[in-house]
Amino acid sequence: MPLIKDLLPHLTVCQLDEVQPALNRRGLSTYSGWYEILQDLVGPSRALDFRTEEEAKHEVMLRLFTSVFYRLRNNYVLKNSIHLNTNSFLTAAAKSVHHFILFPCIHQALQALTCDQQPLLALLEKHIRSVHVNHFLSLTENKTQGALYVLHRLLDHGVTTNLVVSIDCPLALAWLLHGRGSQYVNLELKKLMCCGSQTLSPSEDAVRCSPGDEATPSDNLSDHVSPCKRVKLYSESLEEEDKSGVSSVAVDPQVLCHTFSPCAGPSAGTCTFGQITRLEIRTCGPDSLKGLGFILPTFFCLQSLTLHSKSIFRESDVLDFAGALKQLSDSSCSSLVHLNIGLLPHIGLMKTLLNASPRLTSLYVEFQTVMWGPQFNLDHLGTAEPDISEFPLEKLTVKVTQLQTDPHFLTSVLRRCPYLTSLHIAGMRLPTGSSQSQLLSTLSGKESFSF
């Protein structure tokens, strides 16, 4: 046994992955082997953040899969290219990772998933639970159709329910959310879909599956898969616009699926839409926030929503967003229990959000007061409609960046959170002469809180 433990740090990624099940059955962990690789990838101090075998393995596989799949430069990959630049590694990693980072700008790698790497896509479809769109997603360029198809397969045919978006593009956001929980239909997107659908040739669609073309993806990437004859898009060779001025690129998931999928693949019949339960928008501008306001009222399957902006949201935009939250929460079908939002212009909007979505059990809010413009009187906020007597809030995190914070306002909110078990407050500065005693008295009996 000591010999095996000594050997673990010297095994390759594929070797570690292969021996792990047998060692685990004997009560042995492969953590030391994964930790050794993590140190090379992220450094010793960062590697300590991954404390379990599964956490360390997933981080290693995710980082290496992303580097190898997209052919990104990485010192570890360069040193171990003979073991990593193989189908065996991609197969092993695809079975281990639960998160997929999509770079629409790296067209060649994503296009490969529509052709010779269809079996790899089938594996990802079975295991990926979270997708991160990390770059601009164009709906008017043919070269991004591969990215749209991959997203369709993961979001609609696969098990993905978590979506992370790092782009500020309302139209791309509308495509990502279309049919995947909300009943709202973006008119501009609908126009693009209708226009793109007309580029299909009916005669070619009728012959897309000919005898001998059928193939079933397997877990072995070396197995030969002959994709069906592709449905050619009239706009592929000439990227020209129609008379309406809208690019005639196919963006309808149904059309993309019939275009790229093997005959025996998931495109047989009509595609169903998946459901997004967790949504995180890391670069949410005012237009994206406004667009989300139309989508939210019928987004009944959404359980967690995270919105962050590099600049401070306008109060009027936040109030409109709160109105959309109110429409959602008024429905008994609503599932939203977690909200994370920032940057808000003043702390008074916390009560507005809680009144708008009174079923929240977890709230993270970040405030940054503008240094110019009118000052806000917190006493009159929330009087447009009656306050909810009690909130079911269990976790509350408040991050404040402002010169002074009124403790009485925060205390008034906390008094109506009898089920609060976790509270974290950062950056709060009390006015001169104020004391934390009232706040601490309100918190007495809470299980966990910090400043």
Low-confidence stretches: 199-246, 377-385
Order of helices and strands: HHHHHHHHEHHEHEHHHHEHEHEHEEHEHE
Number of helical stretches of at least 4 residues: 20
> Would you tell me the structural class of the helices and strands?
alpha/beta
Number of strands: 10
Distance from first to last alpha carbon: 47 Å
Organism: Characodon lateralis
Protein name: Leucine-rich repeat-containing protein 41
Keywords: Leucine-rich repeat, Phosphoprotein, Repeat, Ubl conjugation pathway
InterPro entries: Leu_rpt_41, LRR_dom_sf
SSE map:
Elements lengths: L1 H6 L5 H13 L5 H12 L1 H4 L5 H18 L4 H5 L1 H4 L2 H10 L2 E4 L4 H6 L5 H10 L2 E4 L11 H13 L4 E4 L4 H8 L9 H11 L4 H5 L46 H8 L17 E4 L4 H10 L8 E5 L6 H15 L8 E7 L4 H8 L5 E7 L26 E7 L5 H8 L7 E5 L10 H7 L4 E3 L1
Parallel strand pairs: 1-2, 2-3, 3-4, 4-5, 5-6, 6-7, 7-8, 8-9, 9-10
Helix pairs in contact: 3-5, 5-8, 8-10, 10-11, 11-15, 12-16, 16-17, 17-18, 19-20
Keywords: Leucine-rich repeat, Phosphoprotein, Repeat, Ubl conjugation pathway
Protein name: Leucine-rich repeat-containing protein 41
